[in-house]
Every structure is written in structure tokens, then in C-alpha cells.
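Dear Dr. K.,

Following up on our conversation at the group meeting, I've run the structure prediction for D-2-hydroxyacid dehydrogenase from Lysinibacillus irui. I'm pasting the input sequence below exactly as I used it, so you can double-check it against your construct before we proceed with anything downstream. Let me know if the numbering doesn't match what you have in your notebook.
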Amino acid sequence: MRVYFTFEPRPDLREPLLTDFPQLDFVFDSGLSNEELQQADILVTYGEDLTEENIQYATKLKWIFVASAGIEKMPARAIMERGILVSNVRGIHKTPMAESMLAHILAIKRALPWMYEQQKKSEWSKKAKQTELRDSTALILGPGAIGSEVGRLLQAFGVTTIGCNRSGKEAAYMDSMISFAQLKEALPNADIVISVLPKTPETTHLLKEEHFVAMKSSAIFMNFGRGNLVDEKVLIQAIATEQIGYAVLDVFEVEPLSSDSPLWSFSNVIVSPHISSHSSRYVERSLEIFKPSLTKWLKGDTDLENVMDLSRGY
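The predicted C-alpha cells came back this morning:
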């Protein structure tokens, strides 16, 4: 059985795979090759390199392991037509992403961006507008693995957490839950609005102008899910007209963000170039999910961790 990686793990991560699964033929590449794909039974990929044309060559392929949480760039229809099982690494991003979100929140609350600017100007000033995180309210869109982890950290700082998902079904580390239908009514209570929603037809432009109008003028809006959540023109208008106090954006409708986008120039916007999940332990954590799944697969068990429903987009 041939396992084809379209990226090269570090030697210290690669060697245990070869030791633990000596019966398998591993191929580690720095990109996707149709020639190698023709021979692969299992594909390990970040997902963005796979096209519908590639799938035509993957005649032996039975399982795709995606070392990423997002699968929206994959050729879903072609994969489903072939009946190829897809699983991913949902959950491994929760630590770096939650830490990134908390870092941004604390920086804004304690006026760190203002301090950095003062330092650049060599200007001693005590006019910082600092507030406390404690006793504030955070509304978290998509309280799954990542959203629940940031909820846990925020609760430790004395923050009330409101989770929001499609159904309003209970989620970990949320003091209360609402559904998408109740979102507009809940927004006036939120000091911080955080989205970690995936890209689906239902989440596309879920937030509209009326939602930003409903937010506090001092609210911190954070999008760490996918850029389709809000029309960028609507977001820019909300910032320009001071409907919200601050925006922290890790994702955008079109990436990379155009150099002429107004979002670069707002003093109350932080542009994070889709790096909040980056970590030196990323591949390590991916393989911690892949290896137990590979063991199950070799026993004929297809009930793997994080099996994806491509028709739903997650």
C-alpha cells in the first residue's frame, strides 16, 4: 500500500512513520505529481494543491487525509463521485488560534498598538485609552473546537460567553447559546464578536449591514473563520462610519488582500495575513491524528477521526 505525502515532514516526524508502519510504501514530495498520484492508495495533503483534473489520475485512491481544517478549495464533486473518503485535522488549530485571538483582544484592551506608535515617535504620554477585559461579553460565532477553546480562555478572564451556531445547540465553555436566527438580537450585548465559522453556502455573507448597525460602537469584531462571512464593502463601511470600534481580520474574501484595500489604512484595523493558526507544532499535531487513523484503516475500519461531509463543506 502506497501513502503519498504532497509535503515533506521534518525528519524527526517522518522517521517514526517509517518505523511504525514498515509494511507501507511512503512517498514524501514537495508538491503534487500526477505520476505519483496514479500509484497512491492514500493521499496526505494540505488540500489546496488538489484539482478535479488530478482526481482523474488517482485511480487507486481510497482515502485523502487533509492536514488542514478547511476543505473548500478541494474538488468536492469529483471526490464524491469517486467515493473517496476524506478526513482532516479539525481541532489542531485550537491552541494557536485561541492564543492569537486572546493576544489581539488583550493588546486592544490594554492599548498596546497605541503604545507601539508612541514608542516609534519617542513620545512619552499617559493618554492611553485602556479598558479591562473582565466583565465584558463575547459572542462567538461557531463554538466548535476553536471557538470553545477561546471561550474557555475568555471565561478564565471573567468574560461572559455567548455561542452562536445554526441550531443553537449547546457547546462547551459557552454561558448561553443562540441560533443564527437570534444573532441580530444578541449583538447589542456583545463587547467582542468573534467568528470562526467555516465557509459554507449558509455562512456566506451571514453578517450584513444590519448586524454591524446592531453592534456596540465600541465592539471589537474579529474574523478568524473564513472571509466569505461578510461582504468586504459592508465591513469597510461599518469601520469607516464607526459602527464598530475595532476590527481584527485574519481572513478575507480574496486572499492575499489587495495592496490598495482601504483595510490596510484604518488605524483601528489589524490585518493578520491568515496566519493565526501557524505553529511550529502544526505537522506534529496533524500526524498525531493521522497515525491512529492509519492504524484503523489498515484494519479495515473506516470510522476515522474527523471524517468530512463534502456535500456540507465540513
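Two things stood out to me. Residues 2-92+280-298 form a domain with the Rossmann fold fold (CATH 3.40.50.720). The chain has a mean pLDDT of 96.

Best regards,
J.T.
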